[in-house]
């Protein structure tokens, strides 16, 4: 059975900074949203948690391009994570969660799992 999801509004276009990321809080925890205006698609969302350190820092990483792949370099240990797939380029056995993201008017929405406990209690 597929987990239930919802499209959660997490920020507005005005909150975004070109060629960098911002951290947002979702039902699924901290997420890093990246805006790369020179690419299509221009919006990417991955987990904000660096899997090597356990720290919430990926939104503060440096964005770039490695062989055509949009990436963010972790500010701690410098591993590069694909913004499309979440795979670590230096260790393909490690990855971060990737979230579908869309622009809805001036709002940025992420598809996140619905908290099953909260929906049962409601």
UniProtKB/TrEMBL annotation:
Keyword Oxidoreductase listed: yes
UniProtKB keywords: Nitrate assimilation, Oxidoreductase
Domain Rieske-like [2Fe-2S] stretches: 7-110
Tree of life domain: Bacteria
Residue ranges that the Swiss-Prot or TrEMBL entry lists as coiled coil: none
CDD domains noted in UniProt: Rieske_NirD
Name of the protein this chain belongs to: Nitrite reductase small subunit NirD
UniProt lineage: Bacteria, Pseudomonadati, Pseudomonadota, Gammaproteobacteria, Pseudomonadales
């Amino acid at each position: 059975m597929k987990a239930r999801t919802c499209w959660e509004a997490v920020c507005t276009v005005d909150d975004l900074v070109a060629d960098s990321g911002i951290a947002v809080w979702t039902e699924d925890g901290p997420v890093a949203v990246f805006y790369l205006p020179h690419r299509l698609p221009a919006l990417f969302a991955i987990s904000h948690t660096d899997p090597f350190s356990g720290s919430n820092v990926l939104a503060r990483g440096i964005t770039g391009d490695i062989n055509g792949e949009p990436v963010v370099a972790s500010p701690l240990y410098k591993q590069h994570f694909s913004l499309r797939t979440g795979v670590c380029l230096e260790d393909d056995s490690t990855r971060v969660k990737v979230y579908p993201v869309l622009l809805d008017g001036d709002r940025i929405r992420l598809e996140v799992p619905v908290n099953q406990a909260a929906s049962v209690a409601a």
